[in-house]
Amino acid sequence: MTPQSAEGGVRGHVLVVDDELSMREYLELLLHREGYVVTSVPAVKPACELLAQDGVDLVISDMKLGTGSGLDVLRAARARPEPPEVVLITAYGSPAAAVEAMREGAYDYICKPFDNEELRLLVQKALEKRLLRQENRGLRARLLPGLGMAVGQSSRMQEVWALVEKVAPSRSTVLVTGESGTGKELVARAIHMRGSRAAQPFMPFNCAALNEGTLESELFGHMKGAFTGAMQDRAGLLVSAGEGTVMLDEVGEMPLATQVKLLRVLQEKKVKPVGSAAEVPFKARVIAATNRRLEAEVKAGRFREDLFYRLNVITLELPPLRERAGDISLLANHFLARMAEELGRPALRFAPETLVLLERYAFPGNVRQLQNMVERAATLSDSDLLGPTTLPPAVRGESEPVARTGDGNEPRLGGGFNLERHLDDSERRYLLAALKQAGGVKTRAAELLGLSFRSFRYRLAKHGLTDDLEPGGSVDA
């Protein structure tokens, strides 16, 4: 696996291929200063000989190599069992050359003259992608044998996993739906890992986290000079994922204008980078996920009907945890085993009465809430036996519980009860509590409530709470 520096930056072995001695020496010096191991060669043949030995994490090659070409180096690199990333450099850049390089599997394409900082960031991101691919392979090896156990054995989840097995080998677009915290990303990863793309990157992308312009640049890429700050051509996520999988999380939050472009992209299997007249093909599989009912969003005019049908080729609906209570103990013990390993406390275990309390709780935050609850209990407990006192007060019944439907515990109502006011008051209290716990950082508060930032901001405005800061800012709660 690619080593890392003490500062956390990805470091590795870089092969420089250029027929100009001055350029090789320049790149060697620049990359050595960044902590990389660098080998440089002047031609295609010695580059291919080095690539045949493995151990190269990244190739930086000139496109013009005497009688050879950087594309020859790229093809040799892509033929390796664990191919290094490849960045091509040229003084003769053109959209056609960029398209050819991307079609052949290059990570990115940069034109001379280039800024040192541009190249440094490009190298770092390319090596981060390689590291992510290696981690995905390791994760697949660890999770595949017991993936169903890790998620649940209820009949509802067995149906989900049976469908995962069927759709994983295909190229079909999959739409994963379910409440926040039900494990949509885990299911998307399972589809990726159980198919032929498992050795390629899995790239989740939150469609609600960026504004329209930045969203399109990240997904489709952009050309140098397309907008302020676009210092070089950049491949978007769909292209840079190669033959891997791109998960479009919170796709229901995507702006309508971007929905139009995404529909065309999915139909044509080509992207048009921002500021470019040329289209670039991509091979990545797309999995979309949302906690919204897209049929209702279509009727309300907030989501395009044609895009909905394009995404909705195969739908996987994840049940909320309250509808598969039989999985709660299984999941709790699974998360506790992971925490015990991380903390070096193999004797950690739940008391029986603790598991009973967990099974009775509604878990409005679903599996994610349960996982956080187990992490809290394991981290704060001085004893290896996790008793009821390690659970939050709400789970122990010491504060107003979240009502569960169909369990015989219906609330008692008196005259003059106003449901809307009650729900509004409860929502406002939860918003303020989340802001307080998050130290006023709204993006973190939204995560604590299992909401997208856009939805969280809407609720703040609805209750007249301060909402004039950036997502990372704070609110006077």
From TrEMBL:
Transmembrane segments: none
Record-listed 4-aspartylphosphate modification sites: 62
Matching PROSITE patterns: RESPONSE_REGULATORY, SIGMA54_INTERACT_1, SIGMA54_INTERACT_3, SIGMA54_INTERACT_4
InterPro entries: AAA+_ATPase, AAA_lid_NorR, CheY-like_superfamily, Homeodomain-like_sf, HTH_Fis, P-loop_NTPase, Sig_transdc_resp-reg_receiver, Sigma_54_int
Annotated region described as Disordered, given as residue ranges: 385-413
Keywords from the named record: ATP-binding, Nucleotide-binding, Phosphoprotein, Transcription, Transcription regulation
Name under which the protein is recorded: Sigma-54-dependent Fis family transcriptional regulator
Lineage, top ranks: Bacteria, Pseudomonadati, Myxococcota, Myxococcia, Myxococcales
